[in-house]
């Protein structure tokens, strides 16, 4: 009977197989992730843990044996309205080299809804920093993330994946042009003051939008974006009434539940006669999907943006093949290194020990 040795494994869901509503249900806030890390320290067989949580995926990279994998599922059962068996059935399970190939492809933007997007690099670095803060990293995941970032840089430098990458901002502005034809006369409202708000604003400006206003709960973030990009501001308390005067509303806040719904807009909808475009870039979603049935509202979310951008994947088939071949080769090299036990799986330490290494 084979020994139940520690292995690199991955439990996760992504946009490839799980729809947006289910990903929302399995989303963990920062507080939730902190609790998972804290409780994972009580699993002696679990040696390392890295949680990557974005709008595209919720993934748990780990080092441990089959006992650790089962214990991790039972732990996650406490955070989701799913039994461990149902969660396991929903998740993709990968081991060893397959985990590395997947991680490398994710970091390169090959597994993103918007092919080649670069935001995932920052998101992976943030996930790494968070895992490091909670002592989730060891020699395996530490090295795996470093190699993923290096492989991503090579692909973006040596192939067309890094040239003119599809972004949320570019796709959102394309949708706006489809509805209105031109953006010069449109009044645009951005809800949220983070990086996505900045990206979308820049994209809309490049497509001709000149009348752009931003509103956010955090006044400092709102004012900073407004100053940097020379756009107007709107106090959050002025919503939702002020929305009626805008043609395009893009929501990209970190609110845990919708900030706009039928009840909020029910008195405003009859007053609008022209097309009313709502683009929901939030995760979880900022706008109630039931508004799709209300005319003259046109509502699009992240899934819709992915469909708009899908044609870009076919145009880059040669680049994709080059990237996947390179990433597979690098994953094989790293997997063999781990299997030889050169400071890797053989030396995995208990979860919660001091983190190892830096970028």
Say which CATH homologous superfamily of the largest domain is assigned. Glutamyl-tRNA reductase, N-terminal domain
Major beta sheet summary: 6 strands, parallel
Provide the structure class. alpha/beta
Compressed to H and E, one letter per element, the order equals: EHHEEHHEHHHHEHEHEEHEEHHH
- Shape category: globular
Helix amount: 40-55%
Give the CATH topology of the largest domain.
Beta Polymerase, domain 2
Kindly give the count of domains.
2
Radius of gyration: 22 Å
Measured by DSSP, the beta-strand proportion falls in: 5-15%
Distance between the termini: 39 Å
Question: What would CATH call the class of the largest domain?
Answer: Alpha Beta
Mean pLDDT: 89
Protein architecture, described:
By secondary structure, the chain is α/β, with parallel strands linked by helices. The chain folds into two domains: 7-163 and 314-347, Glutamyl-tRNA reductase, N-terminal domain (Beta Polymerase, domain 2, 2-Layer Sandwich), CATH 3.30.460.30; 168-309, 3-Layer(aba) Sandwich (Rossmann fold), CATH 3.40.50.720. The protein is 45% helix and 15% strand. It is built from 14 helices and ten strands. It has helices at 20-25, 30-40, 66-77, 84-90, 96-108, 119-133, 139-158, 168-180, 195-206, 219-229, 262-265, 302-309, 311-315, 317-339; strands spanning 7-14, 46-53, 57-64, 92-95, 187-191, 211-215, 232-233, 248-251, 276-280, 297-300. The strands form two sheets. A six-stranded parallel β-sheet has the order 7-6-5-8-9-10. It has a four-stranded antiparallel β-sheet with strand order 2-3-1-4. Strand 8 (248-251), helix 11 (262-265) and strand 9 form a beta-alpha-beta unit. Helix 3 crosses helix 4 and helix 6 (119-133) runs antiparallel to helix 7. The protein is globular and about 70 Å long. The two termini are 39 Å apart. 43% of the residues are buried. Mean pLDDT is 89; it is low at 355-359.
